[in-house]
Write a structure and sequence with these properties.
Elements: H1 5-27, H2 38-45, H3 47-60, H4 62-78, E1 89-91, E2 94-101, E3 105-112, E4 117-121, H5 126-136, E5 139-144, H6 150-153, H7 156-162, E6 167-170, E7 181-182, E8 188-191, E9 195-201, E10 210-214, E11 224-228, E12 231-232, E13 235-236, H8 244-255, E14 262-265, H9 270-280, H10 285-299, E15 307-308, H11 309-315, H12 324-329, H13 340-357
Parallel strand pairs: 4-5, 5-6, 6-7, 11-14
Antiparallel strand pairs: 1-2, 2-3, 3-4, 8-9, 9-10, 10-11, 12-13, 14-15
Helix pairs in contact: 1-3, 3-4, 8-13, 9-10
Length: 361
C-alpha cells in the first residue's frame, strides 16, 4: 500500500532530524561544537520529540545500523591504532585486555591463559577484537553482550561467523544481535577453568541491560565488573528505557559488590564525568586527586580503566544518592511523606537531568 505524500514528508523530516540528532544523543553530552550556538538552542527547545525520534531510529531501525557502520569507518580512519593506548592487566593466570573501539568505546578480551580460551565483552568493532584474539593466539568461546545498542553489539554476528562454536550471551528482552544463549539475573557463564562470570540484570539504560562480574574467588584475585553503559568512572548511563527508580535499583546492585572489585566500563568518559562531579562537590579531595590523575592519563591518550568500586563510592555522584552533602549541593531534601528509596530516586533523577544538559568548560 502506498503511503500518502504527507506521510512520506513527515517520515523524511523525522529521519533527517533524528539521524542528525543521534550523535548528540549517544555522545552523552561531551564537549563539542554541537553544544554551542543557535543549533544547540533549537535542540534544547525540541529535546523530547527529537530525543524519541532519534532513539527509535537508532535502536529499532536499520538507520541505526547504518549510522554505526559509518561511525566505525570514521573511527578506524581517525584512530588507526585505537582512540586510547591500553595495557593488559594480568592476575593469577587471568588476562584482561581493553580494546579501544569506535571513538570512545571499550571492548574487553578476557583470557584464561592456562587453556588459551577467551571471552569478549561488547565487541563493537569485530576487526579490532579479532586482531587482539589472533595476536594473543586464543580461541573465542563466548561473547558477553551488555545491551543492544550497536556501539556494543555491532560486532556480534561477524565474530560469530569467524568462531562458529562461540556462544553469544545477553538478555532476550534487548534483542541482542546473534544471541544464542539468553540470560536471566544471576546466571553464570564458565569459560575455560578460571573464567566464571555472573550476569546481573540491570535495566534502566535499556530494558534488558546486563552487567558481568568475573568472580575473583576462582583465581584468587579481585573480581572484575564489566559494566557496559550502567556505570562509568564517576558516571552512569542515560535512562533511555527506564525511570530513576529502575536505574537506582540497578546502581544499588553495583553498590552491593565488594569494594576491591575492578570496574571496566564501556566508554572513556572519565575526564568529563569527573569535571561534572567537581561542580557538585568541589571539596571532594578523593575526586580531585582522581581528576588530576585522569588528566595526566588522557594527556597521553592512556586508558583510565580500571578503577575500583571503593574509589567510585567516594566520588561517583550516581553511586552517592544517599550522601547528605550531595543532596544539599542539589538543593534537595526528603519530604515528610517520602520514603528513603523514593527520595534517593528523586536525587538520582536530578543528577541525571543535570548531567544530560551539562557542558564541561
Amino acid at each position: 500500500m502506498a503511503l500518502p505524500d504527507w506521510t512520506l514528508c513527515v517520515f523524511g523530516v523525522a529521519s533527517v532530524c533524528g539521524g542528525f540528532y543521534i550523535y548528540r544523543l549517544l555522545s552523552g553530552g561531551r564537549r563539542s561544537a554541537w553544544n554551542r550556538g543557535p543549533l544547540a538552542e533549537l535542540m534544547a527547545r525540541t529535546e523530547r520529540p527529537l530525543f524519541w525520534i532519534a532513539y527509535s531510529l537508532y535502536a529499532r531501525t536499520k538507520l541505526g545500523y547504518v549510522f554505526y557502520k559509518r561511525q566505525m569507518k570514521k573511527a578506524r580512519e581517525k584512530y588507526p591504532s585505537g582512540h586510547s593506548r591500553t595495557q593488559p592487566t594480568t592476575i593469577n593466570g587471568i588476562k584482561i585486555i581493553p580494546v579501544p573501539v569506535l571513538s570512545d568505546n571499550y571492548s574487553y578480551v578476557i583470557i584464561d591463559t592456562a587453556s588459551s580460551l577467551a571471552a569478549v565483552v561488547d565487541p563493537a568493532d569485530p576487526q579490532s577484537v579479532q586482531s587482539c584474539l589472533e595476536e594473543e593466539g586464543v580461541t573465542l568461546e563466548a561473547i558477553l553482550c551488555t545491551h543492544k545498542h550497536w556501539d556494543h553489539s555491532g560486532g556480534n554476528r561477524a565474530l560469530k561467523r569467524l568462531h562458529s562454536s562461540c556462544r553469544v550471551y545477553g538478555n532476550l528482552m534487548d534483542n541482542i544481535p546473534g544471541l544464542t544463549h539468553p540470560l536471566t539475573d544471576k546466571d553464570t557463564i564458565d569459560v575455560g577453568t578460571k573464567l566464571r562470570f555472573r550476569a546481573f540484570y540491570t535495566p534502566g539504560h535499556t530494558v534488558g541491560h546486563m552487567i558481568y562480574l568475573l568472580d575473583g574467588r576462582v583465581f584468587g584475585g579481585p573480581s572484575s565488573l564489566f559494566s557496559g553503559d550502567l556505570v562509568f568512572l564517576s558516571g552512569c548511563g542515560r535512562m533511555f528505557e527506564g525511570n530513576a527508580s529502575t536505574m537506582l535499583s540497578s546502581l544499588d546492585t553495583v553498590g552491593s559488590l565488594n569494594d576491591d572489585t575492578l570496574l571496566w566500563p564501556g566508554h572513556e568518559y572519565a575526564e568529563d564525568n569527573l569535571l561534572f562531579a567537581a561542580e557538585l562537590e568541589p571539596g571532594n579531595i578523593t575526586r580531585e586527586q582522581k581528576l588530576q590523575w585522569v588528566l595526566q592519563q588522557r594527556g597521553q591518550r592512556l586508558c583510565t580503566s580500571p578503577s575500583t568500586l571503593a574509589e567510585e563510592k567516594q566520588y561517583n555522584p550516581f553511586l552517592r544518592s544517599h550522601a547528605q552533602d550531595l543532596q544539599q549541593a542539589l538543593g534537595l531534601q526528603q519530604n515528610h511523606d517520602e520514603d528513603w528509596t523514593s527520595y534517593r530516586a528523586r536525587v538520582l533523577e536530578e543528577l541525571r537531568r543535570r548531567k544530560d544538559i551539562y557542558k564541561s568548560r
